[in-house]
Specification:
- With 110 residues, the chain is α/β, with parallel strands linked by helices.
- The protein is 35% helix and 35% strand.
- It has helices at residues 27-35, 57-72, 84-92, 95-98; strands at 3-10, 13-22, 44-55, 76-80, 100-102.
- A 5-stranded mixed sheet has the order 1-2-3-4-5.
- The radius of gyration is 13 Å and the shape is globular.
- InterPro entries: Anti-sigma_ant, STAS_dom, STAS_dom_sf.
- Pfam families: STAS (PF01740).
- Positive regulator of sigma-B activity. Non-phosphorylated RsbV binds to RsbW, preventing its association with sigma-B. When phosphorylated, releases RsbW, which is then free to complex with and inactivate sigma-B.
């Protein structure tokens, strides 16, 4: 399976949409896309994971690294639309206590 990552900026927010599976093979593409994001104080970043069907520990590591970078660069990151399976993965690892996660919400852009 492949991964699709795309972004749209609206109202001082950058919305990222991730679709597919995040594993050892697709993670480098996601990492590259997230590394290209520029943080600033006036822009929140919302990553919609509602169309992510599978994620392994490699994917978790990418989100942890991105979250740490956001903290260093005064950025705000929120993960939304996590399936029950993904939410459980973040809970088991304790990351749901550290990261801003909204499971019931999907991003709707005009």
């Amino acid at each position: 399976m492949d991964i699709i990552v795309y972004f749209k900026e609206q109202n001082q927010q950058l919305y990222g949409f991730i679709e597919g599976e995040i594993d050892t093979f697709t993670a480098p593409k996601l990492r590259d896309e997230l590394e290209n994001i520029k943080f600033n104080e006036n822009r929140d970043i919302v990553l919609d994971l509602s169309k992510v069907h599978y994620m392994d520990s490699t994917g978790l590591g990418i989100f942890v690294a991105f979250y740490k970078r956001a903290l260093r660069e005064a950025g705000q990151v929120k993960l939304v639309g996590l399936s029950i399976r993904l939410r459980r993965l973040f809970e088991i690892t304790g990351l749901s206590d550290l990261m801003d996660i909204e499971t019931d919400k999907e991003v709707e852009i005009n």
